Amino acid sequence: MSHSRPTVITGNWKMYKTIDEAVRFVKELAPLVQESTAQVYLAVPFTAIHATAEVAKSTKIVIGAQNMNDASEGAFTGEIAARMLKEAGAKFVILGHSERRKIFHETNSFINKKVKRALIEGLQPILCVGETKEEREQNKTAEVLESQISQSLADLSAEQLASLILAYEPVWAIGTDLAATPEMAQKEHEFCRSIVAKNWGSDFAEHLVIQYGGSVKPDNAKALLEQPDIDGLLVGGASLSVDSFSKIVNSQKI
Ligand code: PEP
């Protein structure tokens, strides 16, 4: 089936780069990706959002955050609200990243509250889902993906989810140099799209951007993007260098 989904490449910097390093990166990256047909997103540390968003204003780079709290505001020491991110210049937020799920014990129901808050405040959510190595070995991949998608997006209509991006990130592929093969990733993307179609209708599913994440590098980006259901990439380690990230952005779908 033909579709008209954009290609969206997101860099996830995790807990790397000071404000100064981040601003220099955006200034160097901007001219290298200006002609790209892909949309270029950078999820920077909270402290760097404002300064990078200012520098990115005249470029095609979109700045976002890596996490947020589900409450509108309140006595939650150390947390950050969607409204604060928005004011600082963030346009999107990564939610449910496997590092948040594993290290910070985030559950699907908590992630669901965050997705709702992000949408209320007008931040585009990038929802991450993916199975661990053990779950894959136990043939539980489908079950895990289905419950992560349906529970993290529970009670939301296709209309409310219009801006959503889904990211399939097999946990065993993140930061390991063991990327899924394009065929393996395609199979899971197709499955995720079928789950979305079952819950929110095939029209919504056909328009949903699904990114692949897990050890994406300049040498595997093109083959991944050539798969019919892979509409973009979520890039960790390789987004920290202007050289490798610009190469990935410029290897977009033909
Ligand atoms: C990530 O952080 O979402 C990620 C996919 O990391 P890496 O590209 O380093 O595997």
Radius of gyration: 17 Å
| Strand adjacency order, main sheet | 1-2-3-4-5-6-7-8
Which shape, going by the Cα principal axes?
A: globular
Helix/strand-derived class?
alpha/beta
How many β-strands, per DSSP? 8
Strand content: 5-15%
Distance from first to last alpha carbon:
16 Å
Order of helices and strands: EHEHEHEHHEHHEHHEHEH
Enumerate the spans where pLDDT stays under 50 for 5 or more consecutive residues: none
Oligomeric form of this entry? Answer: single chain
What count of helical segments does DSSP give? 11
Small-molecule binders: phosphoenolpyruvate
Main sheet: strands, sense, barrel: 8 strands, parallel, barrel
The averaged pLDDT comes out at 96
Residue share in helix:
40-55%
Features:
254 residues; 11 helices; 8-stranded parallel barrel; binds phosphoenolpyruvate; alpha/beta
Written description of the protein model:
The structure is a single chain. With 254 residues, the chain is an alpha/beta fold. The chain is 44% helix and 15% strand. It is built from eleven helices and eight strands. The protein has helices spanning 19-33, 46-56, 82-88, 98-103, 108-121, 133-137, 141-152, 182-200, 202-207, 218-225, 242-249; strands at 8-12, 39-43, 61-65, 92-95, 124-129, 165-168, 209-213, 232-235. An eight-stranded parallel beta barrel has the order 1-2-3-4-5-6-7-8, surrounded by seven helices. Strand 3 (61-65), helix 3 (82-88) and strand 4 form a beta-alpha-beta unit. The radius of gyration is 17 Å and the shape is globular. The mean pLDDT is 96. Residues 12, 169, 174-175, 213-216, 234-238 line the site of phosphoenolpyruvate (PEP).
